[in-house]
Design goal:
heterodimer, A: alpha/beta, Rossmann fold, 4-stranded parallel beta sheet, 18 helices, 13 strands, B: alpha/beta, 3 domains, 6-stranded mixed beta sheet, 22 helices, 46% helix
């Protein structure tokens, strides 16, 4: 989303939204909004329709403590109101860590939130502050901002590092509707390598385990783009190096990912090879018995893939390199700079299937259609025509109407996800790609 | 009404003395409001809630042939990702088999826009929206950022008037400007009245060379009524109220939700404006009356059996249709009461707590009383002079009913629920979950697919409450296995402890 123009139906929360969803995804953390009254509600309605009906959780939604600053606070400053709100929140709400998240209003008037943080920290309260006003950028940025604050200020310094302990980053709660499933799948996979994993947001993470993450040997980011500042903060403050890897979906991508992590940690090649062999066996245990239908019913499809910088290349690679589909076009919906585009292009250029997928960078649903029509041949009256049939669109719910127009199947994976319910489903790794296959083929089978 | 000369509609705090902070009984609220005791209150603890922008996007993205531009940071307007589901359903129900959903743009104000201003970016968005979608109306919603940095959205709209084919409607709904989110309704109507409802009779309804056609149109207009459906009426509600009005021989011009902008242009030529909720409709209807002489009825929400009859009687009285109305009311209510009989024993003395917009909460509570249920507490989002009518009805049955004026604020609700233990909580999307976590059954007080209004609505609400009470285990399990974020000590405290300014 280029900065200098409007965006049609944005595919992202604002910075505050990403920050709030990150804070509510952390164990025992209570966010305190220092914003106008509607920000909490607006984000909640947004997450409902964009994140697979993700509910409020422990202290999110309309329960989130919020200073609800008014015009008089904008004129005279909102700190007095914030101070009062923090005091009553600590009195009323059962939380172990409080984090103040600012909105546009507080950031523009320049409220010195850190002075309130210092005041309460001096009283022994575990409290932090993050500048997350919506105009600073997308939800991905807000996520990174909150985690950077934790990495720099909350995670304790450790002199010695613990062998085979890692921090896992790169999956963004809310922006990725499948964040819970994806995180758990990657975490479980890495544990099979014998690693101890701090993954921040799963039910196996606690505030203590996060605070003690300073002795990790390595940070593994399953994204070439997200949570970068956090990885850097862990490196700068805690001297933990990091590796980044494209978000892995399917056996081909996941094998490469595991090898990269093993190499960075100098694990014995047998260890990683054993895991890869076993995981692949599991994968084909299931694939063997869907292969009948795949072949008998001709379930190969042309595809276009629309998604964020994690999902678009990951799904395209899975379809091209593992699933034997034909991804004609990949559209990446994030606003990313030229250098980052080369990383995504590299994934496509290095497809093991060498499938010639076209690549576009666009967020606007109207413009995305223009890209579609450049790769999808228009129907003609001719008996003999090359059509985008049988076709499939993997994207967000914003592509649903287009898919119906061209008679293609459609599955919502990337934000906004408003036509699916998401609980523990995830698409990452070997296991996740089986779920993706189930979901893709169920769309087709549902028509039978 | 002189407000219309102003660029911005007045805040409801000033126009109606509306407040959002009170805890007490229905008997007390009425007296204290009249005594002016509810003014200047606030909460020392508050929770994130709804600002003007949320109802604004919900209503405006439903308009046909229009584009909504949310002028703000990229998150403002994000609610449309879920509100759009209703819009899509509306489009589907009007015959579009592959509906496009809500169309909206964000001007995506960034750090550099905050410094240098967002007006030029807004203008570019308006011009591009006009070219790209060729809409009948472009609606510009101003949010907190332009409100603080001082973008002149009215100036931008004026400057582009000649250049852009669509009618541009600038609407001020900056979240920090008012505590009363219902100010949005005034803000929306304010802009439509200033920019679209001009009373020029040049629409397709008026220009005829044919004398017979002109006469036919005059006759039609003598039975044409504006029916205001602002966010109070679901699709099935609209059908039910249209059905009743058609029975009276009236034709309905429905607006603003799901309407084409032409419905606004037609409004000054109707014989009567009919409100379904004073909170929503008074601003628009009073103006149409003042400026174009269109009479109106608006004190009564047609939720509840007696309320629906009252609503019909008020309409009939304005048009000389009293006899027809009485016949309709008699046959409708007879049939309804017959249908309700098997349900009533299962509802008798069941207890309820309700939360939603002022009139909706109170009118639904009145309906529940008619069904033989006991109301423990009502939690209207705000309170003002319009609440008195329904409060009096509730008070007549039981003056001790608790009232908690709060725009959501679930911490107060949860405390009240622990004290009073209702069988069912009837509230809005997003508010309900906190009652659900207390183990209470839930009926959504508004849901796009459901009916609440008129006689059919009364039956269906009864039927759905009965259904929910038949198997409450989902929320009972929930209560036993998840926890509320409040410290145990909270449940022993006064639920209204954090309301300041209580004498």
């Amino acid at each position: 989303m280029p900065d200098n123009r409007f965006i049609e139906r944005p595919r992202s929360f604002c910075s505050l939204g990403g920050a709030l969803l990150t804070a509510t995804a952390l164990p025992e953390v209570v966010p305190i909004l220092h914003t106008a009254m509607g920000c909490g509600g607006s984000i909640y309605w947004n997450q409902y329709g964009s994140t697979g009906y993700l509910g409020a959780g422990y202290c999110g939604g309309l329960a989130v403590p919020s200073s609800n600053i008014q015009e008089k606070d904008i004129i005279f400053g909102g700190l007095e109101r914030l101070e009062e709100q923090v005091r009553t929140t600590i009195e009323l709400i059962d939380g172990k860590l409080f984090i103040i998240l600012t909105g546009c209003t507080a950031d523009i008037i320049g409220d010195d939130v850190q002075s309130v943080v210092r005041q309460y920290r001096n009283e022994g309260i575990n409290i932090f502050g993050a500048e997350t006003g919506g105009f600073h950028g997308s939800g991905y940025k807000g996520h990174d901002t909150v985690l950077t604050v934790l990495a720099s200020e909350f995670i304790g310094q450790k002199k010695t590092k613990k062998k085979n302990k890692i921090n896992l980053l790169g999956i963004v709660p809310g922006q990725d509707a499948f964040w819970r499933g994806n995180l758990l799948k990657i975490r479980t996979l890495l544990e099979k390598l014998g690693l101890e994993v701090n993954s921040f947001f799963t039910q196996h993470d606690t505030l203590d385990s996060i605070q003690n993450a300073g002795d990790a040997e390595l940070t593994v980011t399953v994204s070439d783009f997200y949570a970068r500042k956090t990885a850097e903060a862990l490196q700068d403050v805690h001297h933990i190096p990091y590796v980044t890897n494209p978000f892995p979906i399917g056996p081909t991508a996941t094998e490469a990912f595991l090898k990269k992590v093993a190499e960075a940690l100098e694990l014995a090649p047998e260890t990683v090879n054993k895991v890869i062999v076993s995981e692949k066996e599991q994968y084909f245990h299931y694939i063997e018995r869907v292969a009948d239908a795949y072949n008998d019913l001709d379930w190969q499809r042309y595809a276009v893939v629309v998604g964020d910088a994690n999902y678009a290349p990951a799904i395209t690679k899975f379809l091209a390199d593992d699933f034997g589909w034909l991804p004609e076009l990949m559209v990446v919906t994030d606003d990313i700079d030229e250098e980052d585009k080369t990383k995504i292009n590299a994934v496509i250029e290095s497809l093991t299937s060498h499938y010639p997928a076209a690549v576009a960078y666009e967020s606007d649903p109207t413009e995305i259609k223009t890209h579609f029509w450049q790769v999808i041949p228009r129907r003609t009256d001719s008996l003999y025509q090359k059509t985008f049939s049988p076709g499939f669109v993997v994207g967000s719910h914003l592509e649903r109407e287009f898919a119906a127009d061209i008679g293609a199947g459609h599955l919502t994976v990337s934000y906004p996800v408003g036509n699916r319910i998401v609980l523990n489903r995830g698409y990452a790794g070997y296991d996740g790609s089986l779920s993706l296959i189930e979901d893709l083929l169920s769309v087709i089978a549902a028509q039978r | 009404m002189t407000y219309i000369e102003l660029k911005v509609a007045p805040r409801r705090e000033e126009r109606l003395g509306t407040c959002i902070e009170f805890g007490g009984t229905v008997g007390e609220v009425h007296r204290q409001f009249c005594g002016g005791c509810l003014k200047n209150r606030s909460r020392s603890f508050s929770q994130g809630t709804i600002c003007q922008l949320l109802p604004a996007t919900a209503i405006l993205t439903s308009l046909q042939d229009s584009v909504v531009i949310v002028h703000g940071a990229v998150g403002c307007g994000g609610a449309v990702h879920s509100q759009g589901a209703s819009v899509r359903l509306g489009q589907f129900n009007s015959g579009d088999k592959n509906p496009k959903g809500a169309l909206w743009l964000s001007t995506n104000l960034s750090e550099s826009d905050v410094v240098s201003g967002g007006e030029e970016k807004l203008k570019r968005a308006i011009i591009e929206a006009d070219k790209r979608y060729r809409p009948s109306a472009i609606i510009v919603l101003s949010t907190c950022v332009p409100g603080i940095i001082g973008d002149d959205i009215d100036g931008a709209a004026d400057a582009l008037k000649e250049q852009v084919a669509a009618t541009i409607l600038p609407i001020h709904c900056e979240g920090f400007k008012t505590k009363i989110m219902a100010t949005a309704y005034d803000a929306i109507f304010h802009s439509f009245l200033r920019n679209m409802v001009d009373g020029n009779d040049e629409t397709e309804f008026a220009v005829y060379n044919n004398e017979a056609a002109v006469t036919a149109e005059k006759i039609r207009r003598s039975r044409l009524v504006n029916l205001l459906n602002v966010s109070s009426m679901t699709g099935p509600d609209q059908k039910e109220l249209t059905r009743l009005l058609n029975k009276l021989g009236l034709e309905v011009n429905m607006l603003p939700c799901d309407a084409h902008p032409d419905a606004f242009r037609l409004a000054p030529f109707a014989a009567l404006s009919i409100g379904v909720c004073p909170t929503h409709d008074d601003y628009f209807m009073s103006y149409l009356h003042e400026k174009f002489g269109v009479p109106f009825v608006g004190g009564q929400m047609p939720i509840g059996i007696e309320n629906t009859s009252l609503w019909l009687r008020q309409i009939a009285a304005k048009l000389g249709l009293e006899d027809a109305a009485e016949r309709i009311i008699q046959s409708e209510t007879e049939e309804l009461h017959r249908a309700l009989q098997p349900l009533l024993p299962n509802l008798k003395s069941k207890t309820a707590m309700l939360s939603a917009g002022e009139i909706r909460t109170l009118a639904t509570a009145v309906l529940l009383q008619e069904l033989g249920m006991e109301i423990l507490a009502v939690r209207p989002y705000h309170y003002d002079e319009f609440g008195g009518t329904e409060i009096s009805k509730l008070e007549k049955v039981n003056p001790k009913i608790r009232i908690n004026v709060a725009t959501a604020q679930p911490f107060e609700a949860v405390n009240l629920i622990y004290r009073t233990k209702p069988d069912i909580y009837i509230g809005h999307n997003s508010d309900n979950i906190w009652a659900a976590k207390c183990g209470v059954s839930i009926l959504p007080i508004y849901g796009t697919n459901s009916i609440y209004s008129g006689y059919a609505g009364a039956y269906d609400v009864a039927r759905r409450i009965e259904r929910h009470l038949k198997n409450p285990v989902f929320n009972e399990h929930l209560a036993k296995n998840v926890r509320q974020p409040y410290k145990e000590s909270w449940y022993a405290e006064d639920p209204f402890k954090y309301i300041k300014g209580v004498e």
